[in-house]
Amino acid sequence: MSQIILISILGMIGLLIVLFFVFVPVGLWVSSMAANVKISIFTMVGMRLRRVRPARIVLPLIKARKAGLDLGVNQLEAHYLAGGNVDNVVNALIASERAGIELKFEKAAAIDLAGRNVLEAVKMSVNPKVIETPNVSAVAKDGIELLVKARVTVRADLERLVGGAGEATVLARIGEGIVTTVGSALSHKEVLENPDDISKRVLSKGLDSGTAFEILSIDIADIDVGRNIGAQLQSLQAEADKNIAQAKAEERRAMAVAKEQEMRAYVVEAEAEVPKAMAYALREGKLGVMDYYELQNLKADTDMRETIGGGASGKSIES
Length: 319
Prior knowledge:
Structural class: alpha+beta
Mean pLDDT: 80
Strand content: 5-15%
Low-confidence stretches: 312-319
Distance between the termini: 148 Å
Radius of gyration: 49 Å
Number of helices: 13
């Protein structure tokens, strides 16, 4: 019985030792002491209680101290709790210090929390990046379309990285500058002869204002001649003018037909009044019976002549 109790006690002691070494990062504390970075073991236990992984703080701190950076545990822990990438920030600070670029921890932390890769920004500040624009369509004053492709060399500006516009804005401004420059040229041949004019004019506009980059150079990679936009527009305008003229002519024809029908209606209406007028004249004695018969004979004679004339013309046509 005593042996069972002894084994239970030893098991409990072993379990407590295992839990102690799991909860208390003794190995990490030994590593920090060996690196001459003094962090008390109680501080690491406090990190555990604050749900902070001690390795995410201690290892970057050791790296920073070895690189000669004066960083504290509280700074790194606060940045970790804010959701930042402590290791990435420390690497960026070391890279900037080696490159002679002034970058404070607060600025690097702000860049990291803003969602930008601060280490990539430092690398881009040391080694500029080349951005290639897609084909930009621009039309000169002579109506010829040019397809221009440019390569833009940019360098990250760490001071404007927080709140500054990204690559999409730079590309949009470059495209706008190319369209404006080509559009102001009298002929597309001028642009083909001096493509560097595009680079000079676009670069002089200060297109990197308000962005997170500094434009170092703009180089025209390729210029292709596209469509004759001026001729196409003139053709479309001529077609539109023709359609308008046809519509106006059709409108005038319809008005003429309507006017003709209106006049025919007036004639029919006037003819309808003739019998009434004759009846009135007979009643009033202004027209005699003989006069009426003479009018009827004259009408019959006229109808006969028209019939004969129509028949003769028909025979002549047949012959």
